[in-house]
Design a protein that fits this description.
- There is one protein chain.
- By secondary structure, the protein is an alpha/beta fold.
- About 30% of the residues lie in helices and about 20% in strands.
- The chain has seven helices and eight strands, in the order βαβαβαβαββαβαβα.
- The protein has an eight-stranded parallel sheet.
- The longest helix is centred in the C-terminal third of the chain and has 14 residues.
- The model has no long low-confidence stretch (mean pLDDT about 95).
């Protein structure tokens, strides 16, 4: 049985207590820490950059799953790698030369993932998928937390898993957006997802982080 990994998104955490919030996630048995980086250009919001990631690196040994919603992305890849990122996810829509970006991240010693927005078909990475560690399916439009899961994403996950099997490669498929402990998570896993990003589902007012993590 395949292991499903949980990558809590600290975008939904208390930014004044990020170090403590990360420790809470460790105690709740998180598999990695999902860091949303937004530039106010590729997406409307503005979040954090390499200096913050570098400071947060002191609080945990868990892998940092860094999702770059920025453009241009290539000039900043080295900074994010040096800050302590373990896996760097770039958007296909933000890269003029995606193949070059993929190998730049690999050369920096990080695992590489490519994210696809809801309107972007999986076919755009067909030639690259054998070289990817992660394919991220955005199940909401990027830029805001707390959105509802787009049901049509399930079929995209299924098609990507089928494509990977056909090409005899095994990237992890990560699902990001509106994932809760309900049918969205169950159907995503059944379709082939192996990493679930969760933000507001973990940081909520009804239960502790540890309780939310174990649901």
């Amino acid at each position: 049985m395949k292991k499903i990994q949980i990558s809590p998104a600290i975008l939904s955490a208390d930014f004044s207590q990020l170090g403590n919030e990360i420790k809470r996630l460790e105690e709740g048995w998180a598999d990695m820490i999902h860091v949303d980086v937004m530039d106010g250009h590729f997406v409307p919001n503005l979040t954090i950059g390499p200096p913050v990631i570098k400071r947060l690196r002191n609080f945990t040994k868990l892998p940092f799953d860094v999702h770059l919603m920025i453009t241009p992305v290539n000039p900043l890849l080295e900074d994010f790698a040096k800050s302590g990122s373990d896996q760097i996810i770039v958007h296909a829509e933000a890269c003029n030369h995606l193949h070059r970006t993929v190998y730049q991240v690999k050369d920096l010693g990080c695992q590489i993932g490519v994210a696809l927005n809801p309107a972007t078909p999986g076919s755009v990475i067909e030639d690259l998928i054998p070289f990817l560690d992660i394919v991220m399916v955005m199940t909401v439009n990027p830029g805001f937390g707390g959105q509802s899961f787009i049901p049509a994403s399930i079929e995209k996950i299924r098609r990507l898993r089928t494509l990977a099997n056909k090409l005899e490669c095994s990237p992890r498929i990560e699902v990001d957006g509106g994932v809760k402990a309900d049918e969205s998570a169950q159907q995503s896993v059944k379709a082939g997802a192996t990493i679930l990003v969760a933000g507001s589902a973990i940081y909520n007012q009804q239960e502790t982080v540890s309780e939310a993590m174990t649901r």
